[in-house]
Amino acid sequence: MYQRQPLIDERWQKFLDQVEVIELVDRYGSPLNVILPTRLKENIESFKQIFRKFGLPPKIFFAHKVTKSLALVKQAKAAQVGIDVSSVGELEQAHQAGFSKDEIVANGPKSDPFLEACLKAKVIIIVDSLLELKRILDRNTSSGKLKVLLRVSDFNSAHVKINPQLDRFGIEFQKIDQALALIASCPGQIDLLGFSFHFNDDSFEKRVVALEMLLEKVFLLRKQGWKLKVIDIGGGFRSNYLKEKKHWVEFVEKFKQMIVSGHHRVSYDGKTYGFQIVDGTIKGSPTFPAYYTERPGAKLFEEVLSFRSPTFGETSLGRLALDLGLEIWVEPGQALVDQVGLTVMRVIDVKVKLGERVIIVEGNYTNLFADHLEMFVDPLVIKRTSPSSPFKHSYFVAGNLCLGMDLIVNHKVFLPEVSAGDLLVFPNTAAYRMDFVDASPLLQPRPRRVIWSPDELAVYPESN
Q1: How far apart are the first and last CA of the chain?
Q2: Which of 107, 186, 258, 383 has its CA 20 to 30 A from that of 250?
Q3: Coil, strand or helix: which one is 149?
Q4: Are 252 and 292 in contact (CB under 8 A)?
Q5: How many CB atoms lie within 10 A of CB 229?
Q6: Nearest to 413 by CA among 425, 430, 402, 400
Q7: Which is nearest to 116 in space by CA: 100, 136, 132?
Q8: H/E element, 143
Q9: CA 35 to CA 339: how far, in whole Å?
């Protein structure tokens, strides 16, 4: 048995303790997504503090892709940050929330309709490829220069070891000059603000290498007459989902022991998550991400800016940017909605098959994006009637679709006794999980979203 106690903001604990959550789900349906917009403002402030520490103007762009919630987009606007959009729909919602063209960056691969919308709105475009740059130059008919950044990938370093990875995004560092030649061939069309990069993991080393190389490139290009002003270091800043590191370490070790023993079914579908037994020894590494990090959110950002570069005489990267008069931009998503939401599902049934308990909930895998982002944190149990038993049992959690793949928690979890009518509460689901897919398989209704106001001890339906 392992325990993975989730990290819970005190205002969520207040919600669980003082709100009749069962009545709430009875009223609004299951699954129910609950959000806390004020926490978003606090997470934004944690990044602003790092900018202030280095004397840099706070240039934060909320990554819209993590959520479809208009309330959270409006909260980001109220907190005086920009927004990063990746579709026509996100661009329209950004305009609906009041963001101006200079507060919006358009990111990712761009379809013709999305690119046309960006050009018409004159937002800042982060160019993803040489071909995309050519499409922009061919289609841009607006007066005045269009503000762009070049998204760069494929970095390397002589003094920091990083493993090369296939990255389908961005322009290779070695091809920057080709992009510059294209821009120079169409004078008067493009205002090149600078460069951008993004890493999906929380690697400190990759960010340091990329920022250092781009600072050096900016220094050289300025000598050639390019008036570069910005380096955007993207997002990928992680959150802590667990209260203590030891819970994560113990979980991974006990999970491996269960696989080796062969006496326990560790997952519903037989998956071993990257581990294999070779000659009686466990080999491999987990395919699931770590749910505890030593560098959550703004802490990683601070450490990157604090890195003292051997290339620049041990000066910190943040100080280098300040001395060069460069703006550093960031596009956090997950880190900004840390502890901003949770998802509640009602239990329909609990079955025992081949000695294993399977919880069936009123909801499905699309409601938690569970096929790609299975939660490796124990859900909380709210009992409808009898008090929770002190004894824990092992469970898998499945959805209510007529599909064998509809698994919400595929790996084994240990919970107090669960019965039909109880609720499972999945904490910290605002980033991607609660509405990234937003599907209605079997024509089931989409989940409702409500706003939790701790000061008023009240819950309101989100209005668009």
Answers
A1: 44
A2: 383
A3: strand
A4: no
A5: 15
A6: 425
A7: 136
A8: none
A9: 9
Classify the phi-psi angles of 215: left when phi > 0, otherwise alpha if psi is within -120 to 50, otherwise beta. Answer: alpha
Q: H or E element: which one contains 302? A: helix 298-306
Query: What average pLDDT does this structure show over 333-354?
Result: 97
Which tokens in the block code for residue 316?
């910190």
Cα 48 to Cα 332: distance, rounded to the nearest angstrom: 12
Per-residue pLDDT, 168: 85
SS3 119: helix
> What ranges in 224-288 are assigned the alpha helix state H?
245-261
Q: 356-361 and 341-353: which strand pairing?
A: antiparallel
pTM: 0.94
Contact criterion met (CB below 8 Å) for 417 and 393: yes
**Sign of the CA dihedral 290, 292, 298, 301?**
negative
- What's the CA dihedral at 348, 354, 355, 358 to 10 degrees? -20
- For the segment 367-387, the average pLDDT, to the nearest whole number, is 89
Residues 151 and 170 sit within 8 Å (Cβ to Cβ): yes
Cβ 217 vs Cβ 180: under 8 Å: no
The CATH architecture annotation of domain 10-36+339-461 reads Beta Barrel (2.40)
Asked whether the beta carbons of 16 and 25 are under 8 A apart, the reply is: no
Q: Is the peptide bond before 31 cis (omega within 30 degrees of 0)?
A: yes
What integer is the mean pLDDT of 98-123?
97
What is the C-alpha to C-alpha distance for residues 404 and 358, in angstroms, rounded to an integer?
A: 13
Distance CA 237, CA 220 (A): 29
Residue 448: Cβ-neighbour burial (10 angstroms; 0-12, 13-18, 19+): middle
Does the 38-238+292-336 domain belong in CATH 3.20.20.10? yes
| Pick from 113, 115, 107: nearest CA to 82 | 107
Share of the chain above pLDDT 70, in %: 97
CB count within 10 Å of CB 351 equals 11
Residue 241 has pLDDT above 80, yes or no: yes
The full DSSP string for 314-364 is: TEEHHHHHHHTTPEEEE--SGGGGTTSEEEEEEEEEEEEETTEEEEEESS-
CB atoms within 10 A of CB 345: 27
Strand 146-153 vs strand 124-127: parallel, antiparallel, or unpaired?
parallel
